[in-house]
Design a protein that fits this description.
By secondary structure, this protein is mainly α. It is built from seven helices and no strands. It has one domain. The longest helix has 40 residues.
Length: 179
């Protein structure tokens, strides 16, 4: 099982690299059907992948090309029965959905945290125990943190994907927060 996850890690790393190394116009753009397929299929895919019981005798995680090919065939078989063309297709779409979902959540949480940032700034400014310089530095750090969070959440995901994924946020929350 450890080998599956190691191999999956490298495949996921490659898929993320492919997703983020493409030119702006070539990035994966999700469709509603991609998100629906993910929501419906992911719990079973996860279960099926966990059921794979590939045993290896070597604790160094070396495996032969035929063993790796066998494992990849098994994994491909699992994801293709759920509508994906292969494991890479599954990983790239899953990564785009997860990144977009995270971006939406961070953006919402950032907006909800704004009153707390403002309250913290008022507390700092009214605190007689801080010097004017300390207050200025602390307020600047809070404002920078708020701005960074907001910018990060907006820059994480393609706006086209945000538009596609947003209607599914509650369903995705159930899928991602299941553990």
């Amino acid at each position: 099982m450890k080998r599956i996850f190691i191999s999956c890690f490298f495949t996921l790393f490659f898929a993320f690299g492919q997703t983020f190394s493409q030119e702006e116009g070539e990035q994966i753009v999700l469709k509603s059907s991609d998100v629906k397929t993910f929501i419906n299929a992911f719990p079973q895919i996860k279960t099926d992948l966990e059921r794979l019981d590939i045993k290896y005798d070597n604790d160094n995680y070396d495996f032969t090309i035929p063993e790796a090919a066998e494992m990849l065939n098994k994994v491909n078989s699992i994801v293709t029965k759920h509508g994906y063309t292969d494991y890479t297709d599954f990983l790239v779409k899953t990564a785009a959905i997860a990144i977009t979902y995270s971006s939406i959540r961070i953006n919402r949480e950032s907006a909800n945290a704004q009153p707390e940032f403002e309250e913290a700034i008022k507390d700092i400014e009214s605190n007689p125990n801080y010097t004017a310089e300390q207050k200025e530095q602390m307020v600047a750090m809070l404002k920078q943190s708020s701005q960074t969070l907001s910018t990060m959440s907006k820059d994480m995901a393609d706006p086209r994907n945000v538009a596609v994924v947003t209607p599914f946020v509650n369903e995705l929350e159930t899928v991602f927060d299941e553990d």
